[in-house]
């Protein structure tokens, strides 16, 4: 079995599909090692195992909206795109979404996956409760305020099998988005942070071929009282004064079919059909890509982007597109945005998988491994933290210095799962340290 990008061949000895929570508990209790197989949208071996893989797809489905408490309780394996329309029809919404609606809720939260916007924390911030099976096969519930909650929420799949999740909701809303082209990177210090704050969500795209952001995506929440009147209009005017041009037709970030993207040109629509870049009815890139992402402090973003631009000759032949986004600080111990606003610099790589192509056991190709070494060296002065579901080359020691709560997480993992039931080679190497 392969992952979504087809760069990882899973090595599990078998696959189990329990049909009830009781079956799930019994299976976990009697297994020596076990790992959940989610939407397979990880690009490294974080979800791999040589033991037993577990699918939650046969568990009784759960989708319960509590109108009084403004929450939804769902099966953890659901993708966001599978329930957001139902939320909207019932008058509710989530505050933000990732670029893709195809990813599972449990996997996104476990790896601190995010959208964009300096008022938005990562997607795990919406979680109010986790229902999970622990290493002894017991069903437990962790809720906001519980001492272990901030450790378990971004848990890397290491602390148990999350089978049900409760999310906090807000009233539904509409969003419209505009795209600008060819924003020069010159004078980043003068405009970067102001631009990233000018709308509900902002994304900058570049292919590193020229000193420009090829596209700027601005998403406006209609009736957003938290944004000062005229802020977005002034930002649009500033973009044009800097040389960026409003797009004259819908665009795709990677020169693909714009019909695969959510509606642009200021056409208003429900939050779930505008906050992602891509529509649920299409599979972006059909998996023919690899991904890496590094998160750096907000204040360092202009210098870091300039430093990366010096590698344009090495990056541009291998890249499909890079996206720059912002994420607000949180208090989740293994989040890359722990107690600090961060900027995410994302790389979508070409999969050089011709007849002579080679994929390393890590999931990297040799040429991408080489350029990631350069990128990590270049970003090193800016305290980069890699997204742990994507591709990177950092050593365990360097990763521990980036994720400063990793020793605390490691100790908690040893207490909650002393036999290592939910571990795999990836966790042993990067988290446990052997």
How does this structure look, described?
The protein is of the alpha+beta class and about 425 residues long. The chain folds into two domains: about 65-170, Uridine Diphospho-n-acetylenolpyruvylglucosamine Reductase, domain 3, CATH 3.30.465.10; about 175-400, Alpha-Beta Plaits, CATH 3.30.70. About 25% of the residues lie in helices and about 25% in strands. It is built from twelve helices and 19 strands. The chain has helices at about 20-30, 85-90, 105-110, 150, 190-195, 230-240, 300-310, 310-315, 365-380, 395-400, 405-415, 425-430, and strands at about 15, 35, 50-55, 65, 70-75, 90-95, 125-135, 140-145, 160-170, 170, 175-185, 200-205, 210-220, 245, 270, 290-295, 320-325, 340-350, 385. The strands form four sheets. Strands 11, 12, 13, 14, 15, 16, 17, 18 and 19 form a nine-stranded antiparallel β-sheet that branches. It has a five-stranded antiparallel β-sheet with strand order 4-5-9-7-8. A hairpin with a 5-residue loop joins strand 12 and strand 13.
């Amino acid at each position: 079995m392969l992952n979504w990008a087809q760069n990882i061949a899973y090595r599990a000895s078998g696959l189990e599909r329990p049909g009830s929570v009781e079956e799930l508990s019994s299976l976990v209790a009697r297994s020596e090692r076990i790992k959940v197989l989610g939407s397979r949208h990880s690009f490294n071996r974080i979800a791999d195992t040589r033991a037993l893989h577990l699918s939650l797809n046969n568990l009784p489905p759960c989708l319960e909206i509590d109108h009084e408490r403004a929450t939804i309780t769902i099966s953890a394996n659901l993708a966001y795109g599978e329930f957001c329309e139902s939320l909207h029809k019932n008058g509710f919404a989530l505050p933000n979404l990732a670029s893709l609606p195809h990813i599972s809720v449990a996997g996104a939260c476990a790896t601190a996956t995010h959208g964009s916007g300096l008022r938005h924390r990562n997607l795990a911030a919406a979680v109010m409760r986790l229902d999970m099976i622990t290493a002894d096969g017991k069903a437990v519930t962790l809720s906001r305020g519980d001492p272990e909650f901030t450790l378990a929420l971004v848990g890397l799949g290491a602390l148990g099998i999350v089978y049900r999740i409760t999310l906090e909701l807000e009233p539904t809303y509409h969003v419209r988005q505009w795209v600008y082209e060819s924003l020069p990177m010159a004078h980043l210090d003068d405009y970067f942070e102001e631009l990233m704050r000018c709308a509900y969500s902002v994304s900058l795209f570049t292919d590193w071929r020229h000193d420009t952001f090829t596209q700027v995506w601005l998403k406006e929440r209609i009736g957003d009282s938290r944004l000062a009147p005229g802020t977005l209009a002034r930002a649009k005017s500033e973009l044009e004064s800097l040389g960026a041009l409003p797009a004259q037709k819908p665009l795709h970030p990677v020169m693909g079919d714009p019909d695969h993207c959510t509606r642009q040109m200021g056409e208003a629509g429900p939050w779930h059909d505008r906050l992602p870049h891509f529509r649920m009815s299409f599979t972006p890139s059909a998996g023919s890509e690899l991904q890496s992402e590094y998160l750096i402090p907000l204040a360092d973003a202009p210098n870091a982007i300039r430093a990366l631009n010096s590698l344009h000759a090495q990056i541009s032949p291998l890249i499909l597109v890079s996206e720059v986004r912002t994420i607000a600080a949180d208090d989740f111990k293994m989040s890359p945005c722990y107690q600090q606003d961060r900027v995410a610099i994302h790389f979508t790589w070409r999969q050089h998988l011709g007849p002579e192509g080679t994929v390393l056991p890590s999931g990297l190709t040799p040429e991408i491994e080489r350029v990631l070494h350069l990128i990590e060296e270049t970003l090193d002065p800016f305290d980069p933290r890699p997204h742990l579901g994507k591709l990177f080359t950092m050593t365990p020691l360097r990763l521990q210095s980036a994720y400063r709560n990793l020793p605390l997480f490691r100790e908690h993992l040893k207490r909650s799962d002393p036999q290592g039931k939910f571990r795999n080679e990836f966790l042993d190497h990067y988290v446990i340290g052997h």
